[in-house]
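User: Show me a protein chain along with its predicted structure.
Assistant: Here is one chain, sequence first, then C-alpha cells.
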Amino acid sequence: MKNRNSNIAMLFILALSFMSYTTLKDKTVKVKESSVIWKGYKVGGEHTGTIDLKSGSLIFNGKTLTGGNFTIDMTTLGSTDLDGEYKGKLDSHLKSDDFFGVEEFPTATLDITSVTGKDGNFNVKANITIKGKTEAISFPLLIKDNTATANLKIDRTKHNITYKSPSILETIKDKAIYDEFDLNVTLKF
C-alpha cells in the first residue's frame, strides 16, 4: 500500500511539473497602440480608413501562439483618404445598412480557432463575424517582440453586404464595389 501511495504521489508531482511547463498565457492587446487599417476597392479607385479595436487578447503556450479573440468597434469606422463633405458622406454610407449597419451591429468579432507555425511565423484560422454573419478565414500572422501583424482579405458578401457587388448584380460593372476588402492589422501587446 505504501508503494502504491508513493507512486500516486510521484505521478501527481510529475503532472504538476508538466502543467507548469505548458501553461497558457493570455496577453491583452493594447488597443490604443494597435491599428486596423481597411482598404476597399471599386472600379477606377479605392478608399482607405481606420477602425478601432474595442478589446483583444492573444493566447500563447510559451512563445507559440495558440489562440485569441478580438472585438472591433464598428462605430469608429471612418475614411482617411477624403476630407470635408465627401468624407462625411462616405463615412455615413459605410455605417448605414447598405454596408455595415453599425446601429444594429456596433461590434464585429474575430475568434482564432487554430494556429500552426513557430518562431513568430504563424498561419491562423479564425471565425470573423460582421453584421451577425460568421465566415471562416485564414491568414498569415507574424509576431516579433511584442507586436503582431497580419493582412486579411474579407469577402463582404459573406456578411450580407452586397451593395453594388459585381458578383450579385451583373449590370453595375462600371460602378461596382469589389467584394473583397483588406484589413491591415498591427497589434501591440
